[in-house]
Amino acid sequence: MPATIGDWYRLSDPELDDDRLTKRRLSAEKLTSRLTGANAIPLEIVSLAVETFGSPGISSNAALPVAIQAIEEQQPTADKDALSLALDPRILSAFAVDQALGGSLGTRQSRQGSIALLAGAVTAALRHRAPPTGAFAATRMRGLLESAEQVLNTFDVRRRERKGSPSKHFAEAAADQTADWRKVVGEALREVEEDASKDREELEALWWVFGEYSYKLMKPYADLNPAAASVTAGVELAEIVSPPATLGMTAIASRMMRIVPAGNEEKPLATLLEEISEEAWALVTPAAGDKDFVQRHPVVFPISLVATRREQAGGIPDFNSLITGWSPDANSSGSMLAAQVFAERSLLRAAVRPKSGR
């Protein structure tokens, strides 16, 4: 279950009292209710929430005034300018995301809906991020990531679900003389189409991983270096399967690295990025229409941001100029990079080019 709001606010306020917590809880309920709607909002709120764990603030974050408004509704005398720089709206956003994720468990959500986007954005931002200083903050970040992964696990389960034979609809309709046969046939066909789509995705993913061949670079994966193979695997799998980037599908992306020589060898992230070939960089660089979106959400799309800035600057940019929360000196591997690119590309596919979900 999500942590209580008191646990979150001990990050900034050890001297808690019931009145302030009550107001903060009401503000969080307001903010949670506003997380649905436009596809960009879940990513904005996650970007703001991640600032709780040490990222510099982004003045253009559209979620900040929404969070401040939720606070002002319960605390009318609050200083708006001070709030824009304070931890309060960041912590409130993190708690609201945690509540929304936890509240979605047990309910059937669309794979293209706001909850799927929230879970995908949290995992893309936090799964490979260095933990913040302080055990308490690290615990809160880990709990938020676990909430997101629980949600993604429910989508993994649904990938494996099948409706079964449509004959049950016809049998039930035959026993009901008032049945609307047009509706019965339509429902049966919808379920057959849904099952067929899931089967097709699974088969394509299996053919891809066992074929061990890059259909974009037209080369066996074993002939690629680990860095090029990792980003290529993430991009290709994100095109094969529908969002979100669930844990089961992420494991398939990482599995491809087993056949690449030294595919799971750890080395500093900056070194790994330097080893990516030009043709692989071309694959992972976002499309022209996606670049602005990536640059507005640097903590959610760290690798895509590096690719974008690399294209603009003609070389890998200084990490200190990027607001990603990633360290160039942190150890990384091909499997980790494949999983991260898969998560980012799946999220771009869902948020920028959404389709009706299942």
From TrEMBL:
InterPro entries: GASH. Residues 172-349 form the GTPase-associated system helical domain. This is GTPase-associated system helical domain-containing protein.
